[in-house]
């Protein structure tokens, strides 16, 4: 499952994994965890050579239960801090560094293994799992995505506005779509699903229908 930020990937992926009794992998959380580690260690996100030099150092541990996915770096639970503004503001720069991507793609393939799993990210259908049985590319209007993300963050009492979110998401999507290494792009064989006018249950139902049709 690929798509830009706020397209509803996380809720939809977890819902589909739960419905099918499958594992769930949030690859964005892995890029966020590496970014958190770099910031903790004083490595400048805007310095690709410095990021590349430390790319192999963070030790990640991910849990794949869709009811409670976990993420730790060097034994520290970072599920909370990786959603904060510092990491969100720096993650696109860190994830554009090829050494970081090579390392995390290998780690993601190791987690995926040979079993069934729902994986969400930006390059899953194109790079991480080009042979996936079902590929979905989720989109939604910029307006809908900004509203969803604002509600999500304010639910966590972060205090933000739709306008601020729209600008931040546009910046992150532009960086993610134009980077040289594995940019966000729809795989040729992915089914595009525009979630703007759909409820979460409708999105999940549509994906389950696709899974049934193709597996
Ligand atoms: O999905 P989420 O918004 O948490 O992802 C955070 C960032 O991680 C994205 O903006 C992108 O820069 C990076 N990412 C990536 N490839 C993935 C997943 C996420 O580059 N497969």
What would you call the structural class?
A: alpha/beta
Task: Give me the oligomer status.
Answer: single chain
Distance between the termini: 16 Å
**Number of individual domains:** 2
Count of β-strands: 7
Identify the notable features of this structure and list them briefly.
binds cytidine-5'-monophosphate; two-stranded parallel ribbon; three-stranded antiparallel beta sheet; 215 residues; Rossmann fold; 9 helices; 7 strands; alpha/beta
Write the layout of secondary structure elements.
Elements: H1 9-20, E1 23-26, H2 27-40, H3 48-54, E2 60-63, E3 70-73, E4 76-77, H4 85-95, H5 98-112, E5 117-120, H6 124-128, E6 136-139, H7 142-155, H8 162-178, E7 191-194, H9 200-214
Parallel strand pairs: 1-5, 6-7
Antiparallel strand pairs: 2-3, 3-4
Bound molecules: cytidine-5'-monophosphate.
Cytidine-5'-monophosphate is lined by residues 5, 27-28, 31-32, 91-92, 95, 121-123, 172, 176.
Domain Cytidylate kinase: 1-212
Family: Belongs to the cytidylate kinase family. Type 1 subfamily.
Organism: Spongiactinospora rosea
């Amino acid at each position: 499952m690929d798509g830009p930020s706020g397209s509803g990937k996380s809720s939809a992926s977890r819902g589909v994994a739960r419905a099918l009794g499958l594992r769930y992998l949030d690859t964005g959380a892995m890029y966020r965890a590496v970014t958190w580690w770099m910031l903790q260690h004083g490595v400048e996100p805007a310095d690709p050579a410095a990021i590349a030099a430390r790319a192999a150092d963070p030790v990640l541990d991910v849990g794949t239960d869709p009811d409670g996915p976990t993420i730790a770096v060097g034994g520290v639970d970072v599920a909370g801090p990786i959603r904060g503004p510092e990491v969100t503001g720096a993650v696109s720069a860190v994830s554009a560094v090829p050494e970081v991507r090579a390392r995390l793609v290998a780690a993601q393939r190791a987690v995926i293994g040979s079993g069934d799993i729902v994986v969400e990210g930006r390059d899953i259908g194109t790079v991480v799992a080009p042979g996936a049985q079902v590929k979905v590319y989720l989109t939604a209007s910029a307006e809908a995505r900004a509203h969803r993300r604002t509600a999500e963050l304010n639910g966590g009492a972060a205090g933000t506005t739709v306008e601020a979110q729209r600008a931040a998401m546009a910046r992150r999507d532009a960086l993610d779509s134009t980077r040289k290494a594995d940019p966000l792009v729809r795989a040729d064989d992915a089914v595009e699903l525009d979630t703007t006018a759909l409820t979460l249950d409708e999105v999940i139902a549509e994906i389950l229908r696709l899974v049934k049709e193709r597996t």
